[in-house]
Amino acid sequence: GGYLWAIYFYPDGKSPEDNAAYISLFIALASEGTDVRALFELTLLDQSGKERHKVHSHFGRTLESGPYTLKYRGSMWGYKRFFKRMLLEQSDYLKDDCLSVHCSVGVVMSHTEGPKIFSIAVPPSNIGHHFGQLLESGKQTDVSFEVDGEFFPAHKLVLAARSPVFRAQLFGPMKDHNTKQIEVEDMEAPVFKVQCNTSSSCVGLKLMLLLIAFTGLRFMMATSH
Fold it and tell me: Which residues are in the BTB domain (predicted)?
């Protein structure tokens, strides 16, 4: 991480109140730096070959809670009571009055951020305009309205998508695949034509369907011969 580090070992402990009952082990920032965030691991090595090492590690923690911040040069992290001295003297960690310590340091170079909330502008829907263009083109029409002797082509799927009345009649349990014409009663052709011309907007289309639903309609069966 670009920093120098030093290990401090206190065979009689760092705290006088412990009366030399524990050894203390620390790692310190030995170079210039401020607010250095790092993860540490101190391992007291088993020198008998059994590999029963004593490990104190921060590396299993998350980046939010794990790193320790060293404020300035000389700041230390470690354990005042790393190991009981009496047990250490009788253990395999000590050999020929020597200890072997392995230290790992992981410097966190970036800070963590919480989840970001983005605001995305949603454009207004143009589905009504597309429905209007489809109606005006007359392509793939599969049903027509008969109003006062005049015929107006339409699309079953569009009608069913916009009106529960048409959805039930055209695709419900009582549907008839031969339905080709829908007769609209109690409405004049010019009024219906005006609604069709304004159906490029969702408002116009809804208004047209509501007028048809409430004035009544009758399906004409057109069979091919």
Answer: 141-193
CATH homologous superfamily for the domain 127-221: Potassium Channel Kv1.1; Chain A (3.30.710.10)
3-state secondary structure of 73: coil
pTM score of the predicted model:
0.45
User: Where along the chain do the CATH 3.30.710.10 domains lie?
Assistant: 127-221
What does the pLDDT read at residue 112? 56
In the chain, CATH 2.60.210.10 covers: 5-107
What stretch of H or E contains 160? Answer: helix 156-162
199 compared with 98, residue with greater pLDDT: 98
The DSSP line for 182-218 is EEEPS--HHHHHHHHHTTTSHHHHHHHHHHHHHH-EE
Specify the pLDDT at position 56.
Answer: 83
Q: Which residue has the higher pLDDT, 42 or 115?
A: 42
5-107 belongs to CATH 2.60.210.10:
yes
Question: Both tokens of residue 55?
Answer: 């490990």
* Residue with more model confidence, 202 or 32: 32
Q: Which residue bears the tokens 């963590």?
A: 112
- How many residues appear in the chain? 225
Helix/strand/coil for 154? strand
Task: Specify whether the backbone of 74 is left (phi greater than 0), alpha (psi in -120 to 50) or beta.
Answer: left
Spatial separation of the C-alpha atoms in residues 29 and 4, rounded to whole Å: 6
Looking at residue 215, what is its pLDDT? 44
- Output the pLDDT for position 28: 92
Region at 160 (left for phi over 0; alpha for psi -120 to 50; beta for the rest): alpha
